Amino acid sequence: MSLGRTFILKTSALKPVESLVRKSFLFRPVVKRFIAGDTLEDAMKAAEELAKVGLMSSLDYLGENTASKEEALSAIHKYKEMLTRIGKSEFAAKINISIKLTQCGLDQGLEFAEGNYREVLRIAAESDTFVRVDMEASRKMIALGARVREVKWAYLEPAAVAFPEKGLVDQKFVEMAKLLLKEGNYPAIATHDENIINVVKTFAQEQSINKARFEFQMLYGIRRDLQDSLLAEGYNVRVYIPFGDQWYPYFTRRLAERPANFLFILKSFFKG
Ligand SMILES: Cc1cc2nc3c(=O)[nH]c(=O)nc-3n(C[C@H](O)[C@H](O)[C@H](O)COP(=O)(O)OP(=O)(O)OC[C@H]3O[C@@H](n4cnc5c(N)ncnc54)[C@H](O)[C@@H]3O)c2cc1C
């Protein structure tokens, strides 16, 4: 991970910095770029707008590492609300949800979290809605026939569990993407990296892997041009739509990924 990215992730983790960013109006325009809004209806509005042009989506209720069982149960309640709301949408087939195990109460106990997680799956099965589990913090999935979403990784991790150099991350990402395309079950290649996307497209063509057998995924507000061009080429494209008031960790990860995003903050500052 680059020094700049590490610096932003470490600095943004400081409580005084968090409260400054949360209170300051300066960041709101930029937060809005990456996050659909505070409410489920904000997220559904974004998802249905995307669905109208053929883009699929996965709703993410922002929040992680719940501090109590009550907090976890309120997140589970929100997940159920999301599934019920999606079931009522005319675009239900294009919208699913992404959940975090640390929001299911993993820090309150494995058994507790598993019970909550299975409850969400039970509700999702009733409306036949797919549930994605986000990876947070360290093969077997292909053998299980699991639908894998491949990402480069956004969290600060020691070299023991994460490739430190970007070049190696990209190389491993391509290797894994090729394996998933050949042997995986409808894998999701989640990246905004145009070079890697072109490598994946070429590989799929060379291996006669049908476009219907995988999807590309991107984050809300990032490379909308690429989302549209892939869709126009006939690829499945899904947009990850975060919503809720627990936006700070997600927002700082987006800034850290691309420090150039600070320019938006400066622009909004001078625009006043
Ligand atoms: C659908 C989806 C789900 C994800 N889920 C997880 C998860 O569960 N756990 C996890 O650790 N990470 C997750 N991530 C984040 C992921 O790990 C990467 O941090 C993120 O996607 C940026 O990496 P990249 O592959 O786009 O490549 P990079 O090499 O970082 O970027 C390639 C190019 O993409 C563009 N780009 C990338 N990031 C940004 C940005 N923030 N702002 C503007 N432009 C940008 C730039 O043009 C950049 O040159 C997810 C990402 C996606 C798309």
Notes on the structure:
- Strand 2 (95-99), helix 6 and strand 3 form a beta-alpha-beta unit.
- This protein has a seven-stranded parallel beta sheet with strand order 3-2-1-7-6-5-4.
- Helix content is 51%, strand content 12%.
- With 272 residues, it is of the alpha/beta class.
- It binds flavin-adenine dinucleotide.
- Flavin-adenine dinucleotide (FAD) binds at residues 134-135, 149, 151-155, 190-193, 217-219, 222-223, 240, 254, 257-258, 261.
Spell out which ligands are present.
flavin-adenine dinucleotide
As a whole number of angstroms, the C-alpha radius of gyration is 19 Å
Tell me the series of helices and strands, N- to C-terminal: HHHHEHEHEHEHEHEHEHH
Termini distance?
Answer: 33 Å
Task: Work out the helix count.
Answer: 12
Keywords:
7 strands, alpha/beta, binds flavin-adenine dinucleotide, 12 helices, 12% strand, 272 residues, TIM Barrel
List the helices and strands and how they pair.
Layout: H1 3-12, H2 15-23, H3 28-34, H4 40-52, E1 56-61, H5 69-87, E2 95-99, H6 110-126, E3 131-133, H7 140-144, E4 149-150, H8 166-183, E5 188-190, H9 194-206, E6 215-219, H10 224-232, E7 236-243, H11 248-257, H12 262-271
Flavin-adenine dinucleotide binds next to strand 6 and helix 11.
